[in-house]
Amino acid sequence: MKLLRKYFSVWFVFGLGFTVSILAFSQLHSVETHRRQLEFRSAVSERAEALRDELNLYFSILEAMAAFFYASDHVGETEFNTFSTPLLVQRDSLQFLEWVPYVRHTQRVYYEHEAQAHHPNFQFTEYENAQQLVTASERDTYFPVYYLHSRDEKINAYGANGFDLGSEGQRLATLEAARDQGQTMITPWLPLLQLQRSQAVLPYGFLMVKPVYRRQKDQLPSTEADRRQQLRGFVVGGFVLEDLIKNAFHHLDQEAFRFQISEVMPNGQLPAFVYHHDTKQALDEENTILLRSQQILGFGGREWQLVAFAPMTNLLWVWLVLFGGMSFTLLVCLHLLMLLNRNSTIQKEMQHRQQIAAALAKQEAEFRQFVNHAPVMLWMTNAQGVCLLLNDTLREFVGNIAPESFTQHWQDRIHPEDLEDYHAIAQQAANTNHQSFHRVYRVQRQDKCYRWIAETCIVRPTEDALGSGLIGACTDITRRKEMEEALRTREAEFQTFLNHAPVMLWMSDNKGTNAMFNETLRHFAGLRIKETDLGENWIALVHPQDVELCRRVYRRAFALHEDYHMQYRCLRVDGFYRWIAETGAARFTPQGEFLGFTAACYDITKQKEAQHAVQESQRMLKTLMSNLPGMAYRCQNDEQWLMEFVSEGCQAVTGYSPDTF
After folding, report:
1. CA 87, CA 81: separation in Å to the nearest integer?
2. Are 380 and 389 in contact (CB under 8 A)?
3. How do residues 292-342 score in pLDDT, each as one tens digit?
4. What are phi and psi of 207, to 5 degrees?
5. Which residues make Cβ contacts (< 8 Å) with residue 98, sequence separation at least 6?
6. CB contact burial 355-391 (16+ within 10 A = b; e otherwise)
7. Could you say which residues of the chain have pLDDT below 70?
8. E strand or H helix that includes residue 101
9. Which among 162, 168, 170 has a CA at the least distance from the CA of 187?
10. Residues 460, 470: contact at Cβ < 8 Å?
11. 3-state class of 97 per DSSP?
12. Which 8-state DSSP code applies to residue 420?
C-alpha cells in the first residue's frame, strides 16, 4: 500500500494512456481498411482501362494497314515491309504483321508461283499432328501467310512460310467471324507458331485479324453475303501476351498486385492458359490478408477476365499510433519515476562529473608533461603572431623568456644571412594558402653559439573570429649539417682523386649503360664522348680488328657476372691508335645482386712497342746467323756443353740439322 500511494500518479497515467491508445487504434484501423479497399478497386479499374487502351491502339494500327491495302489494288512485299516497319517500331508488344490473302483452290498454283520468285521454297503449308510443317492438303479455300514482317531479323530472313491459317480450327473460326462481321477480331490465346525460328519455347499470345474487302464504287460491302463475295484477305498482327500486359502497365504505379488474366470460355470450360503477373513480389496468400477484385474485358469478339489480388498494406502507421501511444505512456511514466527519484539521480550525476573532471585534469597534466619533455622545441601563436605557448625544451634553448615576447626575441637571434629567406618562406605559404611549410636556418642559442634549426609550421584551426595562428616544431640539426658538410668534402676529395688518377676509370649499371667515367678517360677520347652513351661511342673508337674481341669479352662477362681482362687498340683524340689493357670487376650488393662493372683502362702502348722491338731484334739476329758461312753456335759453359743456339750452316758442315743439337 505504501508503494501504491507513492506511485499512484504513475499507475493512473499508465492505465489512461493504454486505454486511449487502444480505442484510437481500433477506430483508425477500420477507417484505413475501408480506404485501402476503395484505392485497390480504383487501381484495378485503372489497369483494366490501360489494357483496353493498349488493345485499341493496336486496333488502330491494323486499321492503318487495312487502309494501305484499300489504297492500292496490288501491294508488293517490299511496299508491305516499308509501310509496316514504323508501325512495328511504335510498340514492343506487336511482334509481327502479316498479309493473308483469300485464295481459292484454282488460284493456289498462281499464288505459289508468284511468291517463289522471291522465296524459292514457298508453298502452302499446314501442321501435321501439330508438330511438323508439311504441304497443305487440297481444299476449296486457303488463307496462307503471304507477307510476313517481324521485329526479329531471324524471322525476316526466312520470310513468309505460306502457313495456311485456315488449316487450324481456332484461327479459321476467327478469320470467318472477322470476314462475316467486317470487324477486327481476336483469336483465342495460343502458341505463336510464327516465332518458332527465333525462340526455343513458343510464347503464348494471340492474333488480331482485320478483314480487307474489294470496294464497289468506293463502298465497302454491307451484308454478310457481300462480305464473303468481296473478301480480299486479312491484315494480321501477332502479339505476345506477356509483352502486351507489361507495356499496358509500365506507366502505372508498381504496387504489390498479383494479376491473373484468362479467357472467359463458353459453357464453363477451363482456359488453356492463365497469365500470372506479379508487379513487385509474390504474395503469401496463406499468411496475408488479401484484397480481391474482378473485371471482365470484352473486345474483338473475345472476353478476358482480370482478377487482381493485393495485400492489406499501409496499416503500419495505424499500428504506429497504437505503439506510439503506448510508448508515450511509458515515457511519461518513466519521466514521473525519474522526477520521484531526482535527488538520487542528481547526486550520481555530480559524482560522475567529478570523476570526469579528475580524469581530464590527469590527461591535461600528462599532455603538458609530454609537450615539455618532447625532444623537439614546440611553440604556438595566435593570428597576430603573439606566442601563446612554449615548451621547456625551447625555453632551455633561448632562455627563460615570456611567451608574448618570444616571436621578436627569436627573430632577433636568426643569423642575418638567413633572415630574408625566413620571412620569404612564411610569406609564400601565406600567399598560396598552404596549410604547412618548412624552413631551415641558423639561430643563436643562449650561449651565443649559432645552431642550425629545421622548423616545420602548420596552420592552427580556431573558432576565433580573427583567424588561426601557427603551431611550430623546431629541431636542432647542427650535427647533421656538420656531417653533411664533411660528407661533401670527402666526396669532392674522392672526385678529385678519380679525375686525376693516371688510369682511365669508368662504371656501368646492371643493364650495361655507362653510369660515370673520370676526366682521364674524357681527355683520352676528347669531346666526342657523352656520359649518356659512352658504350657505343667507345666501341666506335676501337680498332676495327679488335671490335669483335671487345664485344665478345664484355658480353660474356656481363652474362656470367664475372671479372674480365682484355687488350685492344683504341683511337686517341690526336688520331693515333693506342694499346689499351682493360680490367673490369663485377659489382654486387651485400645481398649478392649484380650492380654492373667497374673498369680501369691502362695505356700500354710503350710496353707493346718495347715487346715489338725485342721481337724484331731477335728476328734480325736469327736472319744474320742463318746466312753466315760455316757454322755458328752458342752453348753453356758446363760439362755437357748444352747447346742454346745452332745456325743453319751446321747442316752443311756436320750433316746434321740444327734440331739434332
Report:
1. 10
2. yes
3. 777 788 878 888 888 887 776 666 777 777 778 888 888 887 877 777 777
4. -105, 140
5. 145, 146, 147, 148, 149, 160, 194, 235, 236, 237, 238
6. eeeeeeeeeeeeeeeebeeeebbbbbbbeeeebeebb
7. 1-7, 130-131, 154-160, 194-201, 217, 251-257, 272, 277-290, 312-315, 343-344, 462-467, 514-515, 527-536, 626, 628, 661
8. strand 94-101
9. 170
10. yes
11. strand
12. H
Q: Which of 361, 336, 70 is nearest to 216 (CA)?
A: 70
Query: Which of 359, 241, 284, 312 has the alpha carbon at shortest distance from 32?
Result: 312
| Spatial separation of the C-alpha atoms in residues 259 and 309, rounded to whole Å | 7
Ordered DSSP codes for 323-386: HHHHHHHHHHHHHHHHHHTHHHHHHHHHHHHHHHHHHHHHHHHHHHHHHHT-SSEEEEE-TTS-
User: In angstroms, rounded to a whole number, what is the distance separating the alpha carbons of residues 157 and 572?
Assistant: 82
CA dist list (Å): 657 to 366, 507, 636, 652: 109, 56, 19, 9
Cell numbers placing 515: 653510369
Q: Is 579 helix (H, G, I), strand (E, B) or coil?
A: strand
* Number of DSSP helices (H) and strands (E) in the chain, helices first: 19, 26
**Is 586 in contact with 562 (CB distance < 8 Å)?**
yes
Cross-strand partners of 583: 565, 600
Classify residue 490 by burial, with Cβ atoms within 10 Å: 0-12, 13-18, 19+.
Answer: exposed
Question: Is beta strand 514-517 parallel, antiparallel or unpaired with respect to 504-508?
Answer: antiparallel
Residues in Cβ contact with 4 at an 8 Å cutoff, skipping those fewer than 6 apart? 11
Q: How far apart are CA 368 and CA 364, in angstroms?
A: 6
Grid cell, residue 53, equals 487502351
The total of other beta-carbon atoms located within 10 Å of residue 542's CB is 19
- 442 - beta bridge partners? 452
